[in-house]
Amino acid sequence: DTAVSQTPKYLVTQMGNDKSIKCEQNLGHDTMYWYKQDSKKFLKIMFSYNNKELIINETVPNRFSPKSPDKAHLNLHINSLELGDSAVYFCASSLRGQGDEQYFGPGTRLTVT
Amino acid sequence: AQSVTQLDSQVPVFEEAPVELRCNYSSSVSVYLFWYVQYPNQGLQLLLKYLSGSTLVKGINGFEAEFNKSQTSFHLRKPSVHISDTAEYFCANMNTGFQKLVFGTGTRLLVSP
For the segment B48-79, what is each residue's pLDDT rounded down to a tens digit? Predict the structure, then answer.
């Protein structure tokens, strides 16, 4: 039974398009996250939501907009895609936040051409 | 500001040999420390974490790490590695009081027969 799932697994699109990545967790966790992993494997947090409320918003272009319709879902919408947006995007969740293990999804590989 | 340094980008080792992956952290406040593993084309999985208490932390798959406050280190060790341990290993820290997980640049462990 998948704990944190993401769709799609692969996303290939052209510059200028708008796309969304969906994330769902069935662990009953309160906190969800989006991370970006670049081509050099560097992982950086983008956003964090706790009980549908935005907690962390790193210096991410405002073309990226997270949306949490409920505690179990955190979607990521990206407008006007650029070449530099190509990366693997990971969703994660944790029970609360501080010190709790974060459970990661399998990732979405986004390729912008 | 918090940061994590993983000194080795790649560590080659023979099967059944011991291994140590190095991690140093920088933070002006108390931290929580984590080691995550990423197998090829997968999400991250928690190996172990240090929140407080005993400085020697045991994790899954035979890994352990030692928190050393004076040296600001949290090195990961395994006495005997298997081929299946080949993966990317990430050290991360989180300031107490915040939910933000900051990752190091990763160390690729390559285990050969």
Answer: 999 888 899 999 999 999 999 999 999 999 99
Q: A2-27: per-residue pLDDT in tens?
A: 799 999 999 999 999 999 999 999 99
- pLDDT (tens digit, 9 = 90+) per residue, A69-105? 999 999 999 999 999 999 999 999 999 867 788 999 9
Q: Does B99 touch chain A (CB under 8 A)?
A: yes
Q: Say yes or no for a CB contact (<8 Å) between B103 and A44.
A: yes
Q: What share of chain B is helix, strand, coil (3-state, %, to 5)?
A: 5, 55, 40
| Look-up of token digits 């699109």 | A13
- Overall size of chain B counted in residues: 113
Search chain A and give the residue with CA nearest B5.
A42
- Which residue in the set A42, A102, A106 is minimally distant from B101, CB to CB? A102
**b/e per residue, A26-47, with b = 16+ CB within 10 A?**
eeebbbbbbbbbeeebebebbb
Residue B34 CB coordination number (10 Å): 29
How close, in Å, is residue B112 to chain A by CA atoms? 22
